Amino acid sequence: xxxxxxxxxxxxxxxxxxxxxxxxxxxxxxxxxxxxxxxxxxxxxxxxxxxxxxxxxxxxxxxxxxxxxxxxxxxxxxxxxxxxxxxxxxxxxxxxxxxxxxxxxxxxxxxxxxxxxxxxxxxxxxxxxxxxxxxxxxxxxxxxxxxxxxxxxxxxxxxxxxxxxxxxxxxxxxxxxxxxxxxxxxxxxxxxxxxxxxxxxxxxxxxxxxxxxxxxxxxxxxxxxxxxxxxxxxxxxxxxxxxxxxxxxxxxxxxxxxxxxxxxxxxxxxxxxxxxxxxxxxxxxxxxxxxxxxxxxxxxxxxxxxxxxxxxxxxxxxxxxxxxxxxxxxxxxxxxxxxxxxxxxxxxxxxxxxxxxxxxxxxxxxxxxxxxxxxxxxxxxxxxxxxxxxxxxxxxxxxxxxxxxxxxxxxxxxxxxxxxxxxxxxxxxxxxxxxxxxxxxxxxxxxxxxxxxxxxxxxxxxxxxxxxxxxxxxxxxxxxxxxxx
Length: 485
Description:
Number of helices: 20
CATH class of the largest domain: Alpha Beta
Radius of gyration: 27 Å
Largest sheet: 5 strands, parallel
CATH superfamily of the largest domain: P-loop containing nucleotide triphosphate hydrolases
CATH architecture of the largest domain: 3-Layer(aba) Sandwich
Distance between the termini: 71 Å
Helix content: 40-55%
């Protein structure tokens, strides 16, 4: 229960919000003062009133982002929570940059707000840490979307801007992991340093250590000169390790040593080099599963996964599709393509599509629409035709898909077609067990074929008890063909 002396100052020009906040905070045991304008709020703060401020960004007499620096200068220890209906990435970043304790997009959960107020009141008073300023016109930042899923991403990113914590970004291909890494760098404390990216999956395994740490002249055959590695290139900045799950074990060991000791040696070198680099890693794989398979070091995982950040696939944030489409059309115009608009029915088609290629697939589609169609307004039939014939989608004949498509995406494609076959009706009950059986039969069959019918090896491969495997073979009526290599 808060102390009686703890007072919350609320500033919002929406009377309904003022009333709701007043009632909720009063029930929680706080004293509350409310106002509809920035002038009164500034007067209270400058006179030393209040222990915490909750303010909307847009008020009739002054923008809160203009008022925040004055409040923080007058009272550095005063926690300020910023609310906004704008709900963009830059709103969250600017709130953090201006010294806000936290940012809440409207509409927000009252229980969450009360919890944030409680934490702010209980914490020792902190001095605000400066961050690079964000210009007013920086809304062209390529993190677009106002969905609830993205709001949480924005809030986490805003909190990370003033830290050097190691971050691991997970998400399917095409969800924008490198864009998030660049945002962490460009709006963080290391913005003046270099941003260096390296894709582990694109480099031959025997060259990864040289790429990361560099090598000395004569370190190996053909090493005629000293080569600077990515760690040295990123000194004072950010090193983005993309597809970290594809890093070979020996390179993982060296990376772990850098993270533990803060220094490394070049290939063929003997002198340790101190490292001042922020690490941001990304993966579209399940690192815990790789750990269980013996392909990824558990101790490295915990070193990298200080702050885990999952980017949602586009199918989980389809309400962002209209904003993304407008964003990509605007980018197309800047690149010299004709301006386009899209009608509501076409947007409905895009929202219903499952986007196996995520935002990258949507961006490619929008560029095709801008480049290939003379119409000023893109309609639903145009979009439907493009989605049917897209090279990364299902061809009209049915089954051709991207060769790199993951199992979950393939299963999802199958289920979408399966549901469509029933029209407006639903499939018969028991879908879960039918689908599980369809998956188990090829899984056990292939595992048994790979082990030449050796059930002990197959059970070990699958991670099952041998008796469980035998029962599955019997229940699923799987034919076991035994042989030797």
